[in-house]
Design brief:
- The protein is of the alpha/beta class.
- 43% of the residues lie in helices and 14% in strands.
- The protein has five domains: 84 residues, Orthogonal Bundle (DNA polymerase, domain 1), CATH 1.10.150; 62 residues, 5' to 3' exonuclease, C-terminal subdomain (DNA polymerase, domain 1, Orthogonal Bundle), CATH 1.10.150.20; 91 residues, Beta Polymerase, domain 2; 74 residues, DNA polymerase, thumb domain (Beta Polymerase, domain 3); 250 residues, Alpha-Beta Barrel (TIM Barrel).
- The strands form four sheets. Strands 11-12-13-14-15-16-17 form a seven-stranded parallel sheet. A five-stranded mixed sheet has the order 2-4-7-6-5, sandwiched between helices. A three-stranded antiparallel sheet has the order 8-9-10.
- The chain is globular.
- The termini are far apart.
């Protein structure tokens, strides 16, 4: 049975790990890692290349030693060096390293000292205290191992979308500057689907001379390694270590190419099965009639989907879940867009931890053509953010009221108020009552158990002054795990209390996440897309929050700050028990009650 490139790449990835456990040369380890990355992205089968007599050493990152091992694997089904490394290490070490946060040294410690060789066995060793009893471990470290095991489904080495998109735009801009002949150029893959983390960056485009585009990519100063460089596909590693795959195709088949490389894999599989039932097959070049063999090409995705009798499916929905049924039945949502937003309700100034004066932040909102905005500097409990004391907040309210006469945009007095550990708020009720918008957020005591955290958030929601719960899970992508809470209970409480939930557009947060926003939408909870900006430039980050809302199938009527000014003001000025009715009526276009 042929061995595919992914299996070959995985073997070299495993060998790199095994060498690291043995304390081998860092250069050898990196060579195997580089070979694995290269092989994963080859556009041809190594099995077929060997069969055809191709010199594998012509492949970047594949020297004689790697080439010999590939040939050995394809001819014998194994690599002797790999087998030898496996026999020198305890059984199951690689399985233990599948756990987030468990590196080679820890995996070796658990395997050698405890004799565990599976995730389940390690979990049992945590529960019965054996892990905590190990040298240099203790209960705190054991608890961390338990958390890592629980978080295994979220394990990845992926890049937060904010970093990936910034890099993709930088590369795209540089290619356009260097290559006047570059036609269309789009991100594809998980980046175009606006997933919160990105494995690598896929770029697809068109050009009369595709070789020039690949040459330009490999010559950019931010490129530190070239993995594959061919006439139509180039793969590189860009600083700070993100792989970029560039594919250049023909303009008349660009629609099929963009659709194919946008994915997701599950969406494409379902679309392929749907096409097969119509007597058609799909690939990156077009749609083929299985009876005649005729290939139809499509310059854009709209015509590609139309050939299948389907409406255009927005990339954010292409998950292989429910979008195909919705498309077939004509039920795809009219997704919210950036231009639907009428205001930003989470902005900071230099009165707390923002970088710009109040008027600069107001002007930034005006520049977005907003009808209203809320200044929400931190409360005093968050000392590290220069939170406002009671006196300073009162002063700021007066400043904002005075500034209103200078602007047509509605300037709302607000605060991001800390939810204390017991669920109470950081300002007295009489001061909170003077605010137009209260964004209540958790910033401390994040290690509370689920039951305590759930009760804490729900208590804050029940407060009559709380308009919005900010960044509900408190997560920071790639650096801080979300707090534990009962999601369904909290979302239901938001609906019952008339409390809006924020989709925080800061690219390091994206909180609510898409699945939570999806469930909130189903329950009818008002959602708010705000930026949590600490600088005037941050307001443009709304695109990230809008993308989360789109992945949650949100239409404009699901987002509170798409309401026109008068309807929005009617919502926030209504007593909380009445707000759900106000929101429902406004979302249906019935106007202000």
């Amino acid at each position: 049975m042929p061995v595919n490139n992914d299996e070959i790449a995985q073997l070299f990835e495993d060998m790199a790990v095994l060498l690291e456990m043995n304390g081998d040369s860092v250069f050898k380890i990196r060579a195997y890692q580089r070979a694995a990355r290269t092989i994963e992205n080859l556009s041809f089968s190594l099995d077929k290349a060997v069969h055809d007599g191709t010199d594998l050493k012509t492949i970047p990152g594949v020297g004689k030693a790697i080439s010999d091992k590939i040939r050995e694997l394809l001819s014998t089904g194994q690599v002797s060096t790999h087998q030898k490394l496996l026999t020198e290490l305890p059984e199951g070490v690689l399985d233990l390293m599948a756990i987030p946060g468990i590196g080679p040294k820890s995996a070796m410690l658990f395997a050698q000292e405890l004799g565990v060789n599976t995730v389940e066995a390690l979990e049992a060793a945590v529960n019965d205290g054996r892990v905590a009893s190990l040298p240099r471990m203790g209960k705190k470290a054991a608890d961390a191992v338990a958390r890592h095991i629980r978080s295994m489904p979220a394990k990845d080495q992926r890049t937060p979308i904010g970093q990936a998109l910034s890099l993709a735009e930088e590369i795209g801009g540089a290619l356009r500057q260097e290559c006047p002949g570059l036609g269309q150029l789009f991100p594809a893959g998980s980046l175009r689907r606006w997933e919160e983390t990105i494995g690598d960056i896929d770029l697809v485009g068109t050009a009369a001379q595709p070789e020039q585009i690949g040459n330009a990519l490999t010559s950019l100063p931010i490129i530190r390694e070239v993995l594959v460089h061919g006439p139509s596909k180039t793969s590189v590693v860009a600083e700070p270590g993100i792989q970029v795959d560039l594919r250049i195709g023909e303009p008349d088949s660009f629609g099929a190419m963009l659709q194919y490389f946008t994915g997701s894999q599950q969406h494409n599989l379902r679309l392929r099965d749907y096409a097969n039932h119509m007597g058609l097959s799909l690939n990156e070049y077009g749609i083929t009639d299985l009876k005649t063999g005729k290939v139809e090409r499509f310059p854009d995705e709209v015509s590609f989907y139309a050939r299948l009798g389907l409406p255009y499916v927005p990339p954010e929905l292409r998950l292989g879940l429910w979008e195909m049924e919705a498309a077939i039945e004509g039920r795809l949502p009219s997704l919210v867009q950036e231009t639907d937003l009428r205001g930003d309700l989470h902005l900071h100034s230099d009165w707390s931890d923002g970088q710009d004066p109040i008027e600069v932040m107001i002007q930034a909102a005006v520049d977005q053509n907003y009808e209203y905005m809320a200044l929400t500097d931190h409360s005093s409990g968050l000392g590290i953010a220069n939170g406002l004391s009671n006196e300073r907040l009162s002063q700021q309210i007066q400043v904002l009221r005075t500034l209103q006469s200078k602007y047509s945009i509605a300037i709302l007095c607000g605060s991001e108020v800390d939810i204390r550990a017991d669920g109470t708020l950081d300002y007295p009720d009489e001061l909170l009552a003077q605010l137009d918008v209260v964004v209540a957020s958790v910033h401390s005591a994040m290690g509370q158990d689920s039951q305590t955290m759930t009760a804490r958030i729900m208590k804050a929601m029940a407060h009559p002054a709380v308009t919005i719960i900010g960044h509900l899970s408190t997560r920071l992508l790639g650096s801080r795990q979300p707090v534990e809470f009962d999601v369904d209970a909290v979302l239901q409480a938001a609906r019952d209390t008339g409390t809006a939930l924020e989709i925080n557009s800061a690219p390091e947060r994206l909180d609510l996440k898409d699945t939570h926003a999806y469930r909130a939408r189903e329950l009818g909870v008002p959602l708010v897309v705000s930026t949590d900006s600490h600088h005037h430039s941050g307001l443009t980050n709304r695109r990230f929050g809008v993308a989360v809302a789109r992945r949650a199938w949100c239409e404009p009527g699901h987002i509170l700050n798409t309401l026109p000014r008068d309807q929005f003001l009617s919502f926030i000025r209504s007593p909380k028990p009445e707000r759900m009715g106000v929101f429902a009526a406004a979302s249906k276009g019935e106007g202000s009650p």
